[in-house]
Amino acid sequence: MFLIKSLNHSSNREFGEIEMGDRAGVLEVKLIEARGLKNMDFAVKMNTYVVIEYGNQKHTSCVAKGKGTKPVWNETFRFKAEYPGGDENHKYILHFRIMDTHKILDHDVFVGQSTIYVKDLIASGTDRGNAELRSAKYRVVLQDKTYAGEISVALSFSINQ
Predict the structure, then answer these.
(1) Structure pTM?
(2) Quick one: three-class SS letters along the chain?
(3) Which of 4, 30, 56, 108 fits a disulfide with 154 by CB distance 3.0 to 4.6 angstroms?
């Protein structure tokens, strides 16, 4: 539930507070699968998961155990979103960070990342009541800024009534 407030200084508002004139809604992210990822485990198949961030919100997928470079998640996540957005720091960007769990190491290993700009989707959904981007493939960027693999994601945005 959103708290509606009219504030003079939008930078002072807390997350979840919406200024009058802003349209609040839900950005739904369906994380489907990845293909062609760089193998970070040479002895066994990778156990990957994805950390998805939108602004100061974060969700983590389940671990695709033993799926190696072809993980399948088929999970849906929901983020609060507004248009026009009050927090210009995140600039309508969804970040996907693909990680590999490691039992031997004391930390998980970065596999790659992908970024999706969702401003047009949210703006369109605000005008129409909802908007959708069907499943699409986005390139995975490695630590050295080269590409290896793709991540499949579907997106939708609908305004709160």
Answers:
(1) 0.82
(2) CCEEECCCCHHHCCCCEEECCCEEEEEEEEEEEEECCCCCCCCCCCCEEEEEEECCEEEECCCECCCCCCCEEEEEEEEEEEECCCCCCCCCEEEEEEEECCCCCCCCEEEEEEEEECHHHHHHHHHHCEEEEEEEEEEEECCCCCEEEEEEEEEEEEECC
(3) 30
Question: What's the Cα-to-Cα distance from 46 to each of 58, 63, 72, 120, 128, rounded to whole Å?
Answer: 23, 10, 12, 35, 41
Q: What is Dmax (Cα atoms) for the chain?
A: 58
Tens of pLDDT along 11-60? 333 444 434 346 789 999 999 999 999 998 777 889 999 999 999 999 99
